[in-house]
């Protein structure tokens, strides 16, 4: 009961503060397995994306997050594990031989959809996107039947800029693009560049 109430409170607050609108431009909210990949400028990105999905999709969609930030004891750990059922990855590579993407691969093999940030960390600079890490390619190549959907999150970094105690009343939009898949004989570099461009194509013109 506490978990459900917390999820409702967080998602309701996210939608209320941001006035979030989901724009399904290249696909529709179908109950199929997907890897939603998005730009990343705030710790609230996955909350807003998750909250923008219809209820039945949210039940099988899990955010991928860094264990170094979210796994610390306390409220963060409760929220990511119990409320959002997040998939935590070890970005610090504490076990040298371990595959940091293994928890993500396990979640996909179980049929879950995921929210993934291919930049690997928050983008706090002026560039619209940081270079993509290779993880997006490896996940897409290992799951060729899965839809890989670009999602541009607009304005969230402006709603709660660094150092501000109260949010600004700005409208956030989440633009869902056309699903991608790794093409025959397409290498890592080509796929990541195509995915990056697909995400940039969804950005507002001023970005």
UniProtKB/TrEMBL annotation:
Xref: Pfam families: Acyltransferase (PF01553)
Molecular function terms, GO-annotated: acyltransferase activity
InterPro entries associated with the record: Plipid/glycerol_acylTrfase (IPR002123)
Keyword Acyltransferase among record annotations: yes
Segments forming domain Phospholipid/glycerol acyltransferase: 34-156
Top-level division of the source organism's lineage: Bacteria
Biochemical pathway: Lipid metabolism
Keyword Acyltransferase attributed: yes
UniProt entry keywords in alphabetical sequence: Acyltransferase, Transferase
Name of the protein: Lysophospholipid acyltransferase family protein
């Amino acid at each position: 009961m506490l978990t459900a109430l917390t999820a409702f409170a967080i998602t309701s607050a996210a939608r209320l503060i941001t006035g979030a609108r989901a724009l399904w431009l290249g696909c529709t909210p179908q109950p199929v397995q997907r890897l939603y990949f998005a730009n990343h400028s705030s710790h609230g990105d996955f909350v807003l994306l998750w909250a923008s999905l219809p209820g039945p999709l949210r039940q099988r969609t899990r955010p991928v997050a860094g264990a170094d930030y979210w796994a610390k004891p306390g409220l963060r750990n409760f929220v990511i594990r119990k409320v959002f059922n997040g998939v935590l990855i070890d970005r610090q590579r504490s076990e040298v031989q371990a595959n940091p993407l293994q928890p993500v691969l396990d979640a996909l093999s179980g049929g879950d959809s995921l929210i993934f940030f291919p930049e690997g960390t928050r983008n706090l600079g002026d560039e619209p996107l940081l270079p993509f890490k290779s993880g997006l390619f490896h996940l897409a190549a290992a799951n060729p039947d899965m839809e890989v959907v670009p999602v541009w999150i607009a304005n969230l970094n402006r709603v709660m800029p660094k150092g501000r105690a109260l949010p600004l009343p700005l409208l956030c939009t989440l633009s869902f693009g056309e699903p991608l898949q790794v093409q025959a004989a397409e290498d890592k570099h080509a796929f990541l560049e195509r995915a990056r461009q697909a995400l940039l194509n969804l950005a507002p013109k001023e970005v």
